[in-house]
Amino acid sequence: METEDSINSINYIIATSMQLSKIGGGVAVNLSKLRGRGASIKKIDSTASGVLPVLKILENVFDYADQLGMRRGSGVAYLNIFHFDLIDFIDCKKINADEKSRIQTLSIGLIIPDKFLQLATENKNFFIFEPNTIYQKYKVLLSDLNMNEWYDKLAADKDILKKELSARNVLTRIAQIQFESGYPYVIYIDNANKQHPLRGLGTIKMSNLCTEIFQLQESSTIGDYGDEDQIRYDVSCNLASLNLVNLLEEKDLEKVIDISMRALTAVSDLTSIKNAPSIRKANESFRSVGLGVLNFTGVLLKNNLAYDDPEVLEFADSLFSAINYYSLLASSNIAKEKNKKFHNFELSDYANGSYFDQYLNNSFEPKSEKVKELLKNIKVPSPEDWAKLKEKVQQDGLYNAYRLAIAPTQSISYLQSATASIQPIISPIETRLYGNSMTYFPMPFLTKENEHLYKSAYQIDQRKLIDVSATIQKHIDQGISTILYVTNNSTTRDLVKLYLYAHHKGLKSLYYVRTKNLQPNECLMCQA
């Protein structure tokens, strides 16, 4: 959800967050439109409190609105990196932060436009802007601005309240705080919008609790008591994940994905959250779902491949092109059966056909003998198949505006004796603490003969991990929860290089940064 700069809107976001948290929903809130600390209110200078008090309220909301005491509510707050309260926002996760400003249980994430990364790469200073002064002069809001077009104009405008900072120092500060806390998440918002098939309908402004959901959004205008509210679109999504080991053993990928898409669509059709009207409106208009995967590394290990072997990228490219194809086919079949397309389908890249260009101009069919053997039970579509699908989608439409998203899937992976999401393993035998008991989860297919393949995520070149995510991202219309794994041997400079590399490779987001203190000559297999 996105809050506007008014008490009415803040109240709406708080109340809706409580309603969603009560029923187990993970909630994300974009605070980028709120005026900064020290801004004027009703022409009285230095009266605004900024975003930090709202963060505190949201943290208390999710602590309070749990699921019958069984599980604490979960939420994340996002802020644009050009916002006036940037430093207060990222410093709230510092371990030594003052208790009045420290945020302990609420997650935080930064929305980073390309312009900031350009300035950081050029080692230039940059300005952070107070949103209300922008609105007062230009009648536009910070989160609605394309900073590639607006930045220079705002930087030169003496009427806009701003602060000057070093872009590289800010990146280093982010890295330092990620080493301490794992936060903030990073959203490459321009990458998300460049790859957005519904760009003709609207703009992506943020992500969700786990950084894999990317959908268009329009904030609602909440009036005074008795006035009519203008309810627009917030983000709604129902998630499920396919076990890739089981999927590859099936001989009918089309049928499995068709059943999965129909199951998720049924959930969407049956969902009606009356107490969250902007979520309800988005669900009814777009019927968005998020079909993902788990046990990607399990497939590799079962077939004697290490995560960083060269065949892995070819395997991922072929497999996920097929998953994308069959999810589109399923959604188009549903649209035809129901005689209903998602809202404003005709404005999408699916309708004009441009979405299919990469598949018409390139073949993603397996080339190496190893990958052909891995995918022997799967029909990977050819460019000719994609041409026929393009014609069908343009004629029959799609029922689901958004289809694919790869969530982190940690706990549910353990339940299936599988590896999480598309991530590498942490250890050959992973541990989780539940209450007062330690539970051990051996990774699948582990034997003495193949233990050398079980490389920890901390031992893998993180650029290889990013390469896997980037390869898969080409075929995912939404996003991927990508976690980075660093050790005490890593530096903030190393982490900043990974931010830039991930952006360059086209990732839409980075989720947590996990840190491990390695001992000299540590043997992860022995430790497990």
From TrEMBL:
It comes from the Bacteria. InterPro entries: NrdE_NrdA_C, RNR_lg_C, Rrm1. SUPFAM superfamilies: PFL-like glycyl radical enzymes (SSF51998). Its EC number is 1.17.4.1. One of its GO terms (molecular function) is ATP binding. One of its GO terms (biological process) is deoxyribonucleotide biosynthetic process. Pfam families: Ribonuc_red_lgC. GO terms for cellular component: ribonucleoside-diphosphate reductase complex. Residues 386-408 form the Ribonucleotide reductase large subunit domain. It is an enzyme of class 1 (oxidoreductase). Keywords: Oxidoreductase. Gene3D superfamilies: 1.10.1650.20, 3.20.70.20. Belongs to the ribonucleoside diphosphate reductase large chain family. NCBIfam families: NrdE_NrdA. PANTHER family: RIBONUCLEOSIDE-DIPHOSPHATE REDUCTASE 2 SUBUNIT ALPHA (PTHR11573:SF30), RIBONUCLEOSIDE-DIPHOSPHATE REDUCTASE LARGE CHAIN (PTHR11573). This is Probable ribonucleoside-diphosphate reductase.
